[in-house]
Design brief:
Blueprint: E1 8-12, H1 17-28, E2 33-34, H2 46-56, E3 60-65, H3 72-77, H4 79-100, E4 104-109, H5 132-146, E5 150-154, E6 157-158, H6 165-175, E7 179-182, E8 186-187, E9 190-191, H7 192-205, E10 210-213, E11 220-221, H8 222-233, E12 241-244, H9 263-268, H10 278-286
Parallel strand pairs: 1-2, 1-3, 3-4, 4-5, 5-10, 6-9, 7-12
Antiparallel strand pairs: 8-11
The structure holds NADP nicotinamide-adenine-dinucleotide phosphate (NAP).
């Protein structure tokens, strides 16, 4: 689907998984973007943000912030940096966006939840992050919402250039190296190509305030997701994908169940009748169709 209207989008974090997919999506939709690199715009400087946003404000239709420090264990080691990038910078961006009257979309995460509930989290479920990364993102989200912006939560995202859960499983299957996969950790793989289309829907159909869950209709645990990958790629999994009944931790704790409900979001995006299937999305991703 295209993205309607005139003007340009300001995409921040254009070198990352989601930001780069979003830039491709806008390019294919014939929509112009501004995408300053971290060298061109220092988002840790309030002055630099104010100057850039105010200078370019008249031509910007919406700002999409895909910048984050996504190294979950790194954030645990260096909370100060985590809060600088994931809380303070988006708070200031949303502040200036509100001042110049431009809608602001903050991309966020399922890690704002503790993962202890047994059912899918709705958009308005209270957050309770259990590691610094989630805490810093949650803090940033609240600041954005307070300034009239919009928060789009995503999970298990699959980009084209960087390693992710799926590429890790593929590497293990190809090299026949055993890996442990949790049967408890629930969520859903989501390609950045699919997410970019949903962000386009957000822009076209909503007022860009409040919280949205850009996720598929159903859920899968890490082990079953691994089995699905081996089936689609026809790679043997016996002795390689090892089911474990715990979540694999690094330094930081990871939540177990981060199933996000998309019901409210689908209604607002006028997508109630359409199927948002992780199986279809992941199959396209594995077959290289998500570019
Ligand atoms: N990856 C996942 O599975 C996942 C899951 C849930 C939610 N999310 C959320 O989805 C969003 C996009 O994630 P992603 O996977 O696309 O992230 P990513 O690939 O790690 O990209 C992060 C982006 O942020 C930029 N960045 C980081 N620190 C910066 C700084 N100090 N100044 C300027 N730019 C900085 C990076 O630029 P440089 O390349 O120049 O450093 C890069 O463009 C984030 O909000 C993340 O919290 C991700």
């Amino acid at each position: 689907m295209g993205v309607e209207g005139v003007g340009v989008f300001l995409v921040l974090g254009g070198s990352g998984n989601l930001g780069s997919a979003l830039l491709r999506f806008f390019e294919l939709s014939g929509t112009s973007c501004l995408a300053p690199s971290s060298a061109e715009l220092n988002v840790l400087s309030r002055d630099a943000i104010s100057k850039y946003f105010i200078q370019n404000g008249p031509k910007i239709k919406a700002i999409i912030n895909c910048i984050a420090w996504t190294d979950v264990d790194g954030c645990e080691r260096n909370p100060e940096k985590a809060f600088e990038v994931n809380s303070i910078a988006p708070a200031h961006m949303a502040n200036v966006a509100q001042y110049i009257g431009v809608p602001f979309i903050q991309i966020s995460t399922d890690y704002v939840f503790d993962g202890k509930g047994g059912s899918p989290y709705s958009e308005d479920h209270p957050t309770n992050p259990i590691q610094v990364y989630g805490q810093s993102k949650d803090h940033g989200d609240r600041a954005v919402l307070m300034r009239g912006g919009c928060v789009a939560r995503v999970q298990w995202i699959l980009g084209q250039s960087k390693k992710n859960f799926v590429t890790w499983v593929i590497d293990a299957l190809k090299s026949q190296t055993p890996i442990n996969l949790s049967t408890l950790q629930m969520g859903g793989p989501t390609s950045c190509a699919w997410l970019s289309e949903r962000i386009g829907d957000l822009i076209n159909h909503t007022t860009l305030t409040g919280i949205y869950h850009l996720v598929h209709d159903d859920y899968v645990n890490r082990y079953d997701c691994g089995l699905f990958i081996s089936e689609v790629l026809n790679l043997p999994h016996e002795g390689v994908l090892v089911p474990v009944d715990h979540v694999n931790f690094g330094i930081a704790k990871r939540p177990e169940n981060t199933m996000l409900s998309n019901k409210h979001t689908k209604t607002l995006l006028r997508a109630v009748g359409s199927e948002w299937s992780w199986r279809e999305d992941l199959t396209d991703y594995l077959r290289g169709k998500c570019v």
